[in-house]
Amino acid sequence: MKALKSFAVINALVITLFSSQSVFARKKCQMDVSTNNISLTLGSFGSTVPGSVSMVRRKSADSFICYMYSYGFGTGNANSFTRFLVNSRGERIYYNLFKNGNKIVEVSDQTPISTTFWGWSIGNQPAVKSFDLKVETNSNSTYPAGTYSDSIAVKLYSGLPGSPLVLEDTKNFTISLNIPSEISLSLVDVGSAFDPADTHQTMDFGELTTGESMEADLKVLSNSGYRIYMESANKGKLENISEKSKISYDLFINGAKKRLKKKKSEVAEGSGSTPTSGENHRIRVVIGNVSGAKAGVYTDNITITAEAK
After folding, report:
1. Which H or E element spans position 18?
2. DSSP letters for 129-142
3. N or C: which end of the chain has fewer CB within 10 A?
């Protein structure tokens, strides 16, 4: 009977000690975190962009542990530390955050402790810590137009990894990047590569014959969907200005016949970004019936324009 009574006392003591543990849990140090949004441009690609967070204490530290603080950075869109910005179509541009060459992660993921993003401060003035953002670019890629963004949660803890941490505050900051639409056109000989300096083609038919044809390639380099327009000075006809005579011709884009009677006629379109070599549209002009046409030089000028859609 005495043994049983002793056991009951020990068991009650264990329960009492366990429940009293929460009484001595460390209080918050009354710290706040402040963040700034980061706006990127195309010029940011391949460069290091500075960012910062700051800690401010709402009252003087009343213990040594409250001099110390650590930051944890959330994963944002990626749910991992392979971070990316994303646009409304789900297209991604990868980036990451660094401190002294180490990726910035959550405190619980900071191994070894040397990678920890931390600091210490005695006074109540804001304590600013800087970090680096770098966009991971591919020089062979054309990045689609649009607004890309990510939102990162910054958690401020009092204490250091390896000691009891207390979450003091959480703030989000946004990283945004706007890539405007860009379209370039090139008119080249059939089979030739895109050449930004080559924007003019002359189709010289010599002595005109019915059914004669010539071709050229229109190459489009774009980071967005686009529409191609053509405008004929003579509304789709060759004209002999001195004799006031005209000869009709047919114009085909990628095998489809197009009418150029409007001031501005849509003749082709594309969706999304083009390959870095450009998207090709074959132009073919076929001379109509030349019977009874007056002698002379016949010409037409076609202006090609493009716009994002």
Report:
1. helix 2-20
2. EEEEEEE---TT--
3. N
- The residue-averaged pLDDT of 89-118 equals 74
Domains located in the chain, CATH noted: 27-179 (2.60.40.2040), 183-308 (2.60.40.1090)
Q: Decide if 142 contacts 57 (C-beta within 8 A).
A: no
Given a contact cutoff of 8 angstroms between Cβ atoms, the answer to whether 220 and 228 are in contact is: yes
| Local confidence band at 138 (pLDDT 50, 70, 90 cut-offs) | low
Task: Answer yes or no: are the C-beta atoms of 95 and 85 closer than 8 Å.
Answer: yes
> Is pLDDT at 109 greater than 70 in this prediction?
no
Residue labelled with tokens 């210490």: 120
Specify the pLDDT at position 2: 36
Which residues are CB-neighbours of 286 under 8 A, at least 6 positions away?
Answer: 211, 212, 213, 249, 250, 251, 252
CB 131 within 8 A of CB 117: yes
pLDDT at 219 exceeding the cut of 80: yes
Q: Provide the pLDDT confidence category of residue 142 given band limits of 50, 70 and 90.
A: confident
3-state SS, residue 270: strand
**H or E element in which residue 35 lies:** strand 31-35
- Asked if pLDDT for residue 84 goes beyond 90, the answer is yes
Residue 7: its H or E element: helix 2-20
- The 3-state DSSP class for residue 108 equals helix
